[in-house]
Design brief:
Layout (H helix, E strand, L loop, with lengths): L1 H35 L5 H10 L6 H14 L4 H14 L1 H20 L3 H16 L5 H13 L3 H21 L1 H17 L4 H15 L47 H16 L1 H21 L1 H9 L2 E4 L7 E4 L6 H13 L1
Antiparallel strand pairs: 1-2
Helix pairs in contact: 1-2, 1-3, 2-4, 2-14, 3-5, 4-5, 4-6, 5-6, 6-7, 6-8, 7-8, 7-9, 8-9, 8-10, 9-10, 12-13
């Protein structure tokens, strides 16, 4: 009995070591693609990230992309577009990111941390533009910033409106009018620095120009169809928001194998791997049947390309070249299947 207990303890310890190694590998699978994403490679990065277990690693993903955005604010639209695609298939990831950003903004606002406030509201603005966060959250943020105007709070509000103004102009013009009425009142009545006054005047000019230099979604980043968008109804004053910081650190999972198997199924469904593997299996079975029936038929099948009907043109067959030379095209096809 003692021997069995010792063996069980040894097996658990060994499994924990394997899980720790897998966790460290998961960090690399997430941090690497996030740090190198840009407009040109975002399609490939999406596929790379879906191959990692984003359900187990959603805390790692949110932490990584929030850190990358705070260090490279000019890439905020790219990060938001990346999240928008992932959110269509794994909305639990998008919901966690919005929750963490709201909590981060609230902490920064209470501590008068202007740089962190600007970073947080910029990301939330572009998540709003991508229809991940609700526009009500945007109105709550700007209302809080202008409720008791200071030089810093007004500067953050101006930065926020530069990014989200075009979206509000299209989807909630009355809200936008109310916000600019408040800006006008602050400009004429509040005791603010001259620099802040110039920023407000510049914002009014941007609005008169229709936010032409700050489009809702920059070219090349409109990757999600409107019907596929999932908007998270998260409010600024929600006291039940949970950052789930425990997801950032390793925890032993007794059902590790089962959970990994489940995500493999989800990944296969997202990337279309199940249909590819079934096609390969059916191809090998038909090849073996040809060998038993006719030698000449087998020789013909060896040189024949893989042929499969397409969903876009029923009844018409399309030749798929699955050789190494067309690997890039295959990855693009996988990405298009995600979007379909």
């Amino acid at each position: 009995m003692l021997k069995e207990a010792a063996e069980s303890a040894g097996a658990d310890e060994y499994n924990e070591v394997l899980q720790r190694e897998s966790w460290e590998n998961l960090k690399k699978q997430i941090n690497g693609p996030v740090n190198k994403v840009n407009i040109a490679n975002i399609n490939d990065i999406v596929v790379e990230l879906f191959k990692a277990n984003l359900i187990r690693g959603r805390g790692l993903f949110c932490r990584s992309i929030m850190r990358a955005q705070s260090l490279s604010s000019s890439y905020t639209p790219v990060y938001a577009a990346l999240v928008a695609v992932i959110n269509t298939k794994l909305p639990i990831v998008g919901e966690l990111l919005v929750s963490r950003l709201v909590l981060q903004f609230r902490r920064a606002f209470n501590r008068d941390d202007k740089s962190m406030c600007i970073s947080s509201v910029m990301f939330l603005a572009h998540l709003t533009n991508q229809r991940i966060a609700n526009e009500i959250l945007a109105f709550q943020i700007v209302s809080l910033l202008l409720e008791t105007p200071t030089d810093d709070s007004v500067e953050v509000a101006v930065s926020f409106m530069r990014e989200v103004g075009a979206f509000l102009l299209e989807s909630a013009p009355r809200v936008l009018n109310a916000v600019f009425d408040t800006f006008r009142s602050i400009l004429h009545e509040a005791d603010i620095d001259k620099r802040i006054q110039y920023m407000i005047e510049a914002l009014f000019q941007i609005r008169r120009d229709g936010f032409k230099d700050s489009p809702i979604i920059p070219e090349g980043l409109d990757l999600v169809e409107e019907d596929d968008q999932i908007v998270h109804e998260i409010a600024l004053d929600d006291d039940e928001l949970d950052a789930q910081d425990g997801l950032n650190v390793f925890k032993y999972d007794e059902d590790y194998s089962e959970n990994e198997r489940k995500y493999s199924g989800i990944k296969a469904e997202i990337l279309g791997e199940s249909s590819n593997s079934s096609n390969a299996e059916s191809g090998s079975e038909s090849g073996s049947e040809g060998d038993s029936e006719s030698g000449s038929d087998s020789e013909d099948e060896k040189d024949a390309p893989v042929v499969a009907p397409t969903s876009e043109t029923p009844g018409i067959q399309k030749i798929h070249d699955l050789t190494e030379t067309d690997l890039v095209n295959l990855r693009r096809t996988i990405y298009l299947s995600i979007m379909s």
